[in-house]
Amino acid sequence: MRAGAGGMTRGGIIVLAAGGGVAPTPVQFKVNQAIGGSTTKAITFDSSVTNGNLIVVGVGGFLSNRNDVTLTAAMLTKTAGTSTVGTVQIDRESGRTDTDDDNPIAIFSVPVTGSGTLTLTLDISSIAGDSNFWMIGGVEYSGADVSGTRVNASNSANTSTNTTVSSGNVATGGAGIIFGVMVPGNPYGAITNTPDGAFTEYETDEDDDPVNSGIIARVVSADTTDAAEWGLGTSSSWAAVAVAYKSSTP
Question: Cα dist. 246→29, 171, 212 in Å?
Answer without folding.
Answer: 19, 10, 29
